[in-house]
Every structure is written in structure tokens, then in C-alpha cells.
Design goal:
heterodimer; A: about 100 residues; alpha+beta; 4-stranded antiparallel sheet; about 15% helix; B: about 10 residues; mainly beta; about 25% strand; rod-shaped
Chain lengths: ~100, ~10
């Protein structure tokens, strides 16, 4: 029962946390971006990678809403990719995605 | 013109 009373609806959203592998990869592909007038969508999750094995799992078709708490709705494709890659150089190394499952 | 077949996917 988390009524937001008309605020931005966060129902049906899933928080996914993962750490990169030893090569600094999370193991998923993203498409879209503000410059392409498309939402950021997970287009592929490679088997056996952090994105595949985290709980809850990242799934193809998931729409990425927030990256490490940051609203990416105005970010270009390249901005989003840089933001994800930067998170593995972060102190925690953790990537936190808020996604809307497809 | 719209290029709707031009979808870039980047691996991260």
C-alpha cells in the first residue's frame, strides 16, 4: 500500500542493483535516448553476466527510468552509456537501476 | 525525414 496520492507513480517499478564483472562490464545492451526520441530500453542481457545473475534480474524490454537515482529522461543515448560506465568507477562500484518491466 | 531503422544499441 504505497499510495503516492497523485505524485509521480512509482508502482510497477523494480529496483535492480548489480556490480560489474572483472572487466568492468555489466552484460546488457541499451537502446534509445532523448536524441532518438525513444525511452531507454534494455535490448539484450548476456547469459552469465552480472545483469543476468543479479536479483531481481534485469530483463530484455525493461525500460530504464533512473540510473543511480538520476532521472535520465532528458539524457541522450551516449549520456546514458557514460553514466552506466561511470558507475563502475564509482567507489561502491554498484549500478542501481530503477526499471519499468515490459 | 525519420530514420526509423536506425537503432543503436550499446553494450555496457
Amino acid at each position: 500500500g504505497k499510495s503516492m496520492n497523485g505524485a509521480v507513480p512509482h508502482d510497477n517499478l523494480v529496483l535492480i542493483k548489480m556490480r560489474p564483472d572483472e572487466n568492468g562490464r555489466f552484460g546488457f545492451n541499451v537502446k534509445g535516448g532523448a536524441d532518438q526520441r525513444m525511452p531507454i530500453i534494455v535490448s539484450r542481457v548476456a547469459p552469465g553476466t552480472p545483469a543476468d545473475m543479479c536479483m531481481p534480474r534485469l530483463n530484455e524490454g525493461d525500460q530504464v527510468v533512473l540510473i543511480n537515482g538520476r532521472d535520465i529522461s532528458d539524457h541522450t543515448h551516449d549520456d546514458v552509456v557514460m553514466l552506466i560506465k561511470a558507475s563502475c568507477e564509482d567507489q561502491s562500484g554498484e549500478l542501481i537501476l530503477l526499471v519499468r518491466p515490459n | 525525414e525519420e530514420k526509423d531503422e536506425c537503432i543503436i544499441a550499446t553494450e555496457v
